[in-house]
Design brief:
Low-confidence stretches: 1-27
Distance between the termini: 20 Å
Number of strands: 37
Largest sheet: 6 strands, antiparallel
Number of domains: 1
Helix content: under 10%
CATH architecture: 6 Propeller
Mean pLDDT: 92
CATH class: Mainly Beta
Shape: globular
Amino acid sequence: MSSRIASLSAATLLVVSLVAARPAAATQSPPGFHASVMLPGSKDGSEPSLAISTTGVRYASWQSPGEFASSPDGVNFTNLGSPDPNAIGDVTNAVDAAGALYNGQICGDPNNLLHTCIYRSLDGGVTWPQRTDLADNHPGASDRPWIEVYPHRRKGHWNPDQTTVFLEYHTFSPEELAYVTISVDGGKTFSPPQMITTDTNALIGSACNTIPGGVVVDDRTQTAYALWLSGNDVESNGQTGCNYSQIGPFNKAWVSTGVPSAVPGIYTWTSHLAWVGDIDVVHKTGDNADKIFATIALDQKGQVHVVLPVRHKDDPLGFVLDCESDPNCKEHPQQTDLLLVTSPDGGAHWTPPVTIDGRSGSHFFPWAAAGSAGRVAVVEYRSSTLRPNDPASVWYITFLSVRRAVATADANGAHYLKSPRVSAVDLDPGPAHIGGICSFGIFCSVVPNADRSLADSIAVAIDPAGGANAVWTENASGDNEIRFACQNSGPSFYAKAPDLSGCYQGG
């Protein structure tokens, strides 16, 4: 795509300011981005992950198997090959304070199939001498791993053999709940599975029906926060096929707060309901956050932010049943919004949801990263379609800059001190995908005309200058490729940093 301009022109900027979900005049300049680049060797790739070191090296991976490319400047990338040519995807990356690079994905070895392997490189992804099989330590099949490390940064020398690695996942059997396992030796060994669905109400909604949304760790306190989605109740979960179908609807978002116990690698977890949507339990319709994934971010003030793609009045079960008899089945037209909720007190209380992209249509696959207090970077696919599984839908890759998402908790619960402000910009002038997007996971294979070619996730991360970096799958031209863009102008996501002038360590 040599015709891409060196940076996005003003004509391609879509600036939206939302105050309590209603448009208002923009009060800040929008972020600007370098023209996107295709990652070398990423043809036929999908579902990318991204991590950035304290020195600004970007590490992007994609599936399947997981393959890496790295860049010091966000523009020029080198293909690093794969940690494991037999692995089968669901990649997730992290970098610790020593610069050690970690990768998690579903193992490819027949003896470890449908379990999570964790890989570590000490030379920037050139070699991967450390591989830990069965890091989930669960007898059932694990799925959709997410990893995180502690610490991310540390003054002076850090020994990566002392890094704590967190692995979140859910299972397909025997009980299909969400878990975290923890390593305190740099990923060499992991703890027994630690169930994060600790509350009785969480178990009622989560029984056999969970979607993990990631884990984040506070460098100041070593407190961990793990996100997952659940259905409404045990009966509805069973009737819609549990984790095997991912039909839902998933109308609850939970965050478990984990604090270290006296036993290394063992945390005490407390479940909190971060968001609950409306649902008709008789007809199995309502607010559905299964336009995956819900995403979690932690800002430097210690606030926890959750972003959810919520389709309203969704009838996923009715749609699937209709597809059994009609190969041309289409969803009923309904709006899908991106909602933000924030906890200022470690997950105990949550703000009412605020719509951060309320333009008419569908907003899928959000991923979030946070900087200073109340500053959140979000990347998404968006379309004007109200039927996201329609093969005629046109999708764009969009970046959202959220500011002023600073909350407090008092006798009336949690609320924002000021209404969050949002600006938006498309990262490419052309579409990223033409066609439907199926979000039923592996169940998409039995839904007529379902399009899962993008797989299920994209990613964003913040570099040392406070610039946002995004990675996504594009296949509007017909073939999958992984594209990357770095922020090169506009406000930093770190409050004390100057406005950006060029990508970090680049031009």
